[in-house]
Write a structure and sequence with these properties.
The chain has seven helices and no strands. With 124 residues, the protein is mostly helical. The longest helix is centred in the middle third of the chain and has 22 residues.
């Protein structure tokens, strides 16, 4: 389905940025459960960074972080990033969403080719 959407979008828009954005949108729209997992993971990462920013200097020194490192970590955007504790399923989905679209392999057999007309209702 994503391959068909990509082909339709490539006819309508020339911009690769718009195509990538629409492909990502279609990818996550087809997987609502993983989308909610991804949103919850980004919120947890944001919460974790806020807690890190609120640490006192002596506690920050206990874990071996300098103030500049904490500041740099808190300035990084959360959108599109995965936390270190994310599940393997979510990591695989995010990696797949970032992969460029490609047509299906030539060796992949369709339902029609695999079963022929005899598998379709009403066909003799």
């Amino acid at each position: 389905m994503l391959w068909m959407m990509k082909n339709m979008l490539s006819r309508w828009w020339v911009s690769a940025g718009v195509q990538a954005c629409c492909r990502s949108l279609c990818f996550w729209a087809c997987r609502p459960r993983l989308l909610w997992c991804h949103i919850n993971d980004m919120l947890a990462l944001r919460r974790s960074r806020r807690q890190l920013a609120g640490l006192e200097a002596d506690r920050r020194d206990d874990i071996g972080l300098a103030a500049a490192e904490v500041r740099d970590e808190c300035r990084r955007p959360v959108l599109g990033e995965i936390s270190p504790w994310a599940s393997l399923e979510l990591r695989a989905a995010v990696n797949e969403s970032r992969r460029p679209a490609a047509p299906p392999p030539r060796y992949e057999r369709s339902f029609y080719r695999a079963r022929g007309r005899r598998g379709l209702p009403g066909a003799q």
